[in-house]
């Protein structure tokens, strides 16, 4: 893999797999929320849905760190403001569109709205809720107000935004000890989690809010991906070991085996799974033997619209399941095809007509190399 790579193979397909895990989890969970019943245990699906989001975080850590460090290598430094502007153009339009829809539109359509809170309750304290969303603190909305059920999944976007804001500054500030920074963040997240949950000040309102934020600020997963990006950039001996065919196959087999059982996921823990995800990301991105594994055009397209798949899918799931129940259609047969096809249609339309025109503006914020 050339060090100057700007697009890595397979990662679009991996994005879709992460989004699909979340969609499957919500498709399994929503019948219970709609009062349609669900006999099977949801614990395994819940863990898989959460790990789908962590896979996104590992991917973000890898790609963002690669982009920042590669820019530094080529241009002499990390340009923070242009980077933040490009991220803003990618994330903000769809995020704020969904915030407005979940506050002011979706609650008024029963076929789209998750039951349990009336439209009036959703609208109560809406200026405070809107402020929290504007500050990218959706994780605190249920703790400070009565919540916005249809926007619960946006917590991960808030996490991503704080990572985008802090990570370039951290890489600049700790330039001489970046490997230690990554290791410290990876292990330090758990230490701070325990301190906030069980420390001497736990139970106070301030610490409760800090904990509500921190438990979802999974920067440890992003650090796992960041470590692989740094190894790839340095092209050292460790990279050759990790890109060995046997290491890749063993990692893939172990990951699939662990994810197949609830008990194994619980026993192994998220830290080990994050490392497995990071090894898979590294190999899928840079191992020539895996160059075409997830590069089929349909997977690449689905990965390209995966942000929309994630953002739009909850109301689509509610709509599909509500209609299937209303018309007495066999849910176990039609739920997944209908949910995925409709979500893909909505996300694809959004990408083409709403997101893509905005994304073209990102070229204005790409720093050029200085003439020699």
How is this structure best described in words?
The chain has 372 residues and is an all-alpha fold. It has one domain (16-361). Helix content is 72%, strand content 0%. The radius of gyration is 21 Å and the shape is globular. The model has no long low-confidence stretch (mean pLDDT 93).
Primary descriptors:
single chain; 372 residues; mainly alpha; 0% strand
- Gap between N and C termini: 27 Å
Report the β-strand fraction as a percent range: under 5%
Order of helices and strands: HHHHHHHHHHHHHHHHH
Helical percentage: over 70%
Structural class: mainly alpha
- Domain count, please report it: 1
What's the count of strands?
0
State the helix count: 17
Rounded mean pLDDT is: 93
List unreliable stretches of 5+ residues: none
Rg measurement, Å: 21 Å
Give the overall silhouette. globular
Task: Profile the largest sheet.
Answer: none
Write a concise synopsis of the structure shown:
By secondary structure, this protein is mainly alpha-helical. The protein contains 17 helices and no strands. It has one domain.
Chart the SSEs and their pairings.
Elements: H1 11-33, H2 43-75, H3 80-104, H4 119-123, H5 126-134, H6 141-144, H7 155-173, H8 178-198, H9 205-214, H10 219-234, H11 237-242, H12 245-259, H13 262-268, H14 270-286, H15 297-304, H16 306-326, H17 331-359
